[in-house]
Amino acid sequence: MTRRSDPRTTRLPVPAGELPPFTPVPRQYARHDGWTLERQIAFIEALADTGSVEAAAKAVNMSQSGAYHLRRQPEAESFRNAWAAALDLGVRRIEDVVMDRALNGVEEPLYSYGKLIGTRRKYNDRLLMFILRNRAPDRFADGKPRAMNAIDTMEAKRLKQQWRKEWEAEQTRVTPAEVRASIDRKIEEIRRRVEADRVRQWARMSEETRAAWEAFVALRDRDLEAMRADDEMRAQIVDHPMAEVPTLRPEDMRRVQPPEPEPPKTRWTLKDESFDP
Description:
Layout: H1 37-50, H2 53-59, H3 64-71, H4 77-104, E1 106-112, E2 115-122, H5 125-135, H6 137-140, H7 150-170, H8 176-204, H9 207-239, H10 250-256
Antiparallel strand pairs: 1-2
Helix pairs in contact: 1-2, 1-4, 4-5
């Protein structure tokens, strides 16, 4: 059985333990407390040893933000390549430390009533399986994708940002005039479809139905024209200068009120009970 090569060799730009030569970033002013050429080289070496930008910056007595600012300079291409190579080596060293802890465990102190009585070695099986899946995925990952390590996460983030910029560059800015033109084209297409459906329905109707529809349209247009003429005549009458609406005064209101009804009259009837016919 042929053993596969270590998958990490495909992502390491240089052999383990080696750093590529690089050109330090030129500085405008030569300050003894700034990013001198010697300090830049020492920073890259510390980054390869620790795998931490913060620890490497502290090792050369500089700030972490200053290191990132130096990496963003236009002339820092060689420095950025050395940074990436050193970070790969630093992560490799961290993996070795984690593997050592997974295999040999970690010493933990034992206390009893606040007193140290001894130590014990604690092993982390989950950490061991994580390292095995990443270092030998063909044997320990069961054919499944291995978990992403720090390098994979950084590469995925970089690719995501690159793809996002490419996608944004491909998108074109749409003007309001183009939006209105697109809406007008869609409305015109809808009208064309409605008209085509109406023509097809008219062709399938009988002669009697067509005649009845044409008679209905003629009567409808006649009535609408009559109503329109009547509305225009009413508007002309209202707008005429002589057509003033009379206003009623309070005394006029009393005149137009209906008269009060008269009280009923009393009728007297005489009756002679002694009359004898």
